[in-house]
Amino acid sequence: MSGTIGVMSGELCHADFALSLMHQQTPPGTKLVWTKGIDIVGNMNSLVRKMEGEWLWVLGTDHVMSFDLLARLLEHDVDVVVPLCLKRSPPYDPVVYSHQNSKDEYVGYNDLPEHGLVPIHAAGSAGMLIRRHVLEAFEDPVFESHGGLNEDLSFCAKVRDAGFSIWCDVEAHLGHIGQISVWPTWRNDEQAIDLHLGNGEIMPIRRLVQPELVTS
């Protein structure tokens, strides 16, 4: 069953993403389309308009995946399915949500199982596999942002309202590439390390002490 891999990119493409995409197992007739720019909503809709075949697999160039991730997601006969992906900054929560609370805030999972296909309320679009019949149920533009909801959560709400289901394969993992610089420092009179994350946060960790060399 042919379909389309849709890639969204900024100015740069991470080498790890390029390598994992090159080695991805794809069905015959798979088309690759690429959008570049800072307009995420516009890029998402451009992917939808360019898609061919029976499915659209959405990727960003800040991700890395196993060679069989697409094949695994395609095995599921569901409307929308995502792999398990974590946020790239602490506390690294899964980008999947179980419900909305009384304040309409999206609530994540604290107890995802280790195995299986889990019905979810919403998810980020990273690695999202969408079947054509879902996209054809909506007028152009399919992706929009409403109020405080980004394009991912707005799309998931639209999917649910139309009676379609969203699932997460918790055994299908998608890596989220971040930016970390490693800085030497001292804490409590011991050598230590500060990890400076791309969002400005600092994660302190203890330095791993190398064992002394033993000479005879």
Structural summary, described in words:
This protein has 216 residues and is an alpha+beta fold. It folds into two domains: 4-176, Spore Coat Polysaccharide Biosynthesis Protein SpsA, Chain A; 179-216, no CATH class. Helix content is 19%, strand content 35%. The chain has five helices and 14 strands. It has helices at residues 15-22, 40-50, 69-74, 132-135, 151-161, and strands at residues 4-9, 31-36, 55-60, 63-65, 80-85, 96-100, 106-108, 117-119, 122-123, 129-131, 166-176, 180-187, 190-197, 202-206. The strands form three sheets. Strands 1, 2, 3, 4, 5, 8, 10 and 11 form an eight-stranded mixed sheet that branches. Strands 7-6-9 form a three-stranded antiparallel sheet. The longest helix has 11 residues, at 40-50. The protein is globular and about 60 Å long. The relative contact order is 0.18. The model is unreliable at 209-216 (pLDDT under 50).
Describe the protein's topology:
Layout: E1 4-9, H1 15-22, E2 31-36, H2 40-50, E3 55-60, E4 63-65, H3 69-74, E5 80-85, E6 96-100, E7 106-108, E8 117-119, E9 122-123, E10 129-131, H4 132-135, H5 151-161, E11 166-176, E12 180-187, E13 190-197, E14 202-206
Parallel strand pairs: 1-2, 1-3, 5-11
Antiparallel strand pairs: 3-10, 4-11, 5-10, 6-7, 6-9, 8-11, 12-13, 13-14
* Total number of strands: 14
If you compute it from the alpha carbons, what radius of gyration comes out, rounded to the nearest whole angstrom?
20 Å
Distance between the termini: 64 Å
Mean pLDDT comes to 89
* H/I helix tally: 5
Helix content: 10-25%
The helix/strand order is: EHEHEEHEEEEEEHHEEEE
The poorly predicted ranges are: 209-216
Assign the CATH architecture of the largest domain. Answer: Alpha-Beta Complex
Largest sheet: 8 strands, mixed
**What's the number of domains?**
2
What percent strand?
25-35%
Choose one word for the global shape.
Answer: globular
CATH topology term of the largest domain: Spore Coat Polysaccharide Biosynthesis Protein SpsA, Chain A
